[in-house]
Amino acid sequence: MQSMEDTDMTPHRIVSREEWLVERKALLAKEKEFTRTRDRLGAERRALPWIKIEKPYEFEGPGGRETLADLFGGKSQLIVKHFMLGPGWSEGCVGCSFEMDHVDGILVHLGARDVSYVAVSRAPWPEIQAFRKRMGWQIKWVSSYGNDFNYDFHVSFTPDEMQRGEGYYNFATRPIPIEELSGRSVFYTDESGDIFHTYSSFGRGGEDVLGAYRLLDLGPKGRDETGPRGNLSDWVRHHDRYDAAGTVASTGRWQPEAATPCCEPAEPR
Fold it and tell me: Is the pLDDT of residue 10 over 80?
């Protein structure tokens, strides 16, 4: 064997094809077990009990006022993306935008499996539409401005919580750096029209839908998140901004100077 020095990577062993296959097959056994574990976890997720939604919610979108039931669009399942775009923001969170980029192209496939996908933000509808148009997304996106939806699902925080510096997020009370945070919630409606909350995820739970991460994880460099924050805020940008100089602030907004992480409080990696 011999070693290879690479200025961008940790030195790796160079081996024969036969030696490589021995180690690759050992890793394959671990990958298969991980796949089976993920399948079991998915089954447990689907087996969670449900909560019946009793409160009426109304949203504003391109067609005017809509209820939560309307957002299903004739499907029995609804995935809501809690998108960080607060009232008065000039643009959405970089991390949420990264997630939205992954979903926009698969909407037709979700629809074929009885799933509707809708983004919800607290910004008024005209502010949402301006950013949606800029990004070129086809995803349905509505405003929860004026109702309790974001607060009830613990992705928006009151002035009192911001003053205290902590709020309930990702199923625990923790420091809150900004009045809007990210997440996903799933709902089901039965034949009688009753609606149930079945699942929510926050923090690093969002990685499950980030196909770019899945592909980066295959490469020799992996995610290569070696910047000061060690997460996507070190490198992800709005997809129309990769040629621009700047960084992501703790508010999820673009700015020209280095700042703290965006989007969701850091979880142990």
Answer: no
181-206: pLDDT as tens digits: 999 999 999 999 999 999 999 998 99
Span 43-66, mean pLDDT? Answer: 96
CB 116 within 8 A of CB 77: yes
- Locate 204 and state its tokens: 């690093």
According to DSSP, the β-strands at 58-61 and 64-67 are antiparallel
C-alpha distance from residue 246 to each of 41, 177, 208, 222, 264 (Å): 39, 20, 27, 23, 20
Q: What is the pLDDT of residue 244?
A: 85
Name the residue with tokens 């992480």.
261
DSSP SS3 for 4: strand
Between CA 39 and CA 68 the distance in angstroms is 30
Helix (H, G, I), strand (E, B) or coil at 227: coil
Beta carbons of 104 and 137 less than 8 angstroms apart: yes
Rounded distance between C-alpha atoms, residue 149 and residue 84, angstroms: 13
How far apart are alpha carbons 239 and 94 in whole angstroms?
Answer: 9
Distance, in Å, from the CA atom of 176 to the CA atom of 88, rounded to the nearest integer, reads 19
The DSSP secondary-structure symbol of 118 reads E
Phi, psi values for residue 254, rounded to 5°: -75, 140
Task: Report how far Cα 146 is from the mean position of its chain's Cα atoms.
Answer: 23
Residues 6+ apart with CB under 8 A from 191: none
Q: Which amino acid is at 97?
A: S
Measured CA angle at 75 (ends 205, 91), to 5 deg: 50
